[in-house]
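WARN retry 2 of 3 for item q-0093 after timeout on previous attempt; input resubmitted unchanged.
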Amino acid sequence: MIKHIVCFKLKAGESAEKAAEVLKSMKGKVPEIIDMEVGVDFLKSARSYDVILQVLLKDRAALDSYQSDPYHCSVVKEYMHKARESSVAVDYDV
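OK item q-0093 returned
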């Protein structure tokens, strides 16, 4: 199993709740996703990121398919690339 985690820092004026809804919209639309979790930061500290995405995938082949999935690319990535100031990611075996 693979855990794919991305933390997003949004541009000023962007809604973390809207970004979270866009990320959550992948559930049921991206077949490689076994499980997923999306959270919105409540501390709002200087070092905080605004939104986190955690996705559980079967293996590295599923991660590759997820990365090129049409819905993920045309809806989610497109929105998040416009809304984010920066992001960090980690992918690891579980």
